[in-house]
Structure formats: structure tokens, C-alpha cells
């Protein structure tokens, strides 16, 4: 059942990304082009996502635990450090240059565009480099695997 719910969640997410136009890098780049061909429609997509997330969290936090885990896993860090700021800035710059964010690029694999493969390859290389620089192994095994 967990696999079915995972599939259904991915299907809904990918459909929403496709309908909203977030798989189209030109539409995303136009959202960032405030002085030129600005397209505010993605602000409505993000606003809608915030409303759904707000309601969803209110419902989920009423539960004692998630459906498929013993407990909620909440980040313990409470401070803003240079890793967070640098990573956020790098994410924003990459999104602004490429017109893709990782969440939208994965469903965009279905378009068969080489740019999507290049972008996700760069994301994977960046993640691997970050792990190497932090002295972490490239591949970790889950205890539940």
C-alpha cells in the first residue's frame, strides 16, 4: 500500500507541475524577468501551494505519527548558518539560470528534453561534490532496506 500511495503522490505532484507550467523553463525564467516579459502566473501557483501546505500541515500534525513511520522526523537545527544561506543562494541562482528546480525537473524527464538530463546531471554532480567536501560517503544504505 505504501508503494501505491507513493506512486499516487508522485502522479499528483507531476500533474500539478505540468499543468502549472513549472516544467517549462521559459515560463519560469519569465517569472524572474521583472524588467522584461514578467509572467506573474507562477506566483499564483506558489500561493496555491502555500494554502494547500498550510491546511495539510494542520491536518497531519493532529496525528500521533505519520502513516508509514513510527514518528515524525523534524529537523533539530534552529539557527541560520552559512551552509543554509549558501545552499539557498545556490539553489536560487541555479533556478534563475536554468529555469528548472529539482522538484520540477524530475517530472520533466518525461518530456525527453536533453536540457533536463543536463540539469539533473549537474544537480547530482553538485550533491556528490558537497558530500565529498563534507567527508561523507557518496552512497548511504538505509537500515530498513
TrEMBL record:
It comes from the Bacteria. The chain crosses the membrane at residues 42-61, 82-110, 116-133. Keywords: Membrane, Transmembrane, Transmembrane helix. This is Permease. It comes from Ruegeria arenilitoris. The lineage of its organism: Bacteria, Pseudomonadati, Pseudomonadota, Alphaproteobacteria, Rhodobacterales.
Amino acid at each position: 500500500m505504501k508503494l501505491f500511495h507513493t506512486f499516487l503522490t508522485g502522479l499528483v505532484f507531476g500533474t500539478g507541475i505540468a499543468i502549472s507550467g513549472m516544467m517549462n523553463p521559459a515560463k519560469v525564467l519569465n517569472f524572474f524577468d521583472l524588467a522584461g516579459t514578467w509572467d506573474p502566473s507562477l506566483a499564483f501557483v506558489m500561493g496555491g501551494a502555500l494554502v494547500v501546505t498550510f491546511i495539510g500541515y494542520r491536518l497531519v500534525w493532529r496525528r500521533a505519527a505519520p502513516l508509514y513511520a513510527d514518528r515524525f522526523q523534524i529537523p533539530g537545527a534552529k539557527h541560520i548558518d552559512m551552509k543554509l544561506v549558501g545552499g539557498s543562494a545556490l539553489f536560487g541562482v541555479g533556478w534563475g539560470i536554468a529555469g528548472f528546480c529539482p522538484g520540477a525537473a524530475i517530472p520533466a524527464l518525461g518530456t525527453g528534453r536533453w536540457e533536463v538530463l543536463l540539469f539533473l546531471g549537474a544537480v547530482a554532480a553538485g550533491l556528490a561534490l558537497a558530500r565529498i567536501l563534507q567527508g561523507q560517503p557518496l552512497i548511504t544504505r538505509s537500515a530498513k532496506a
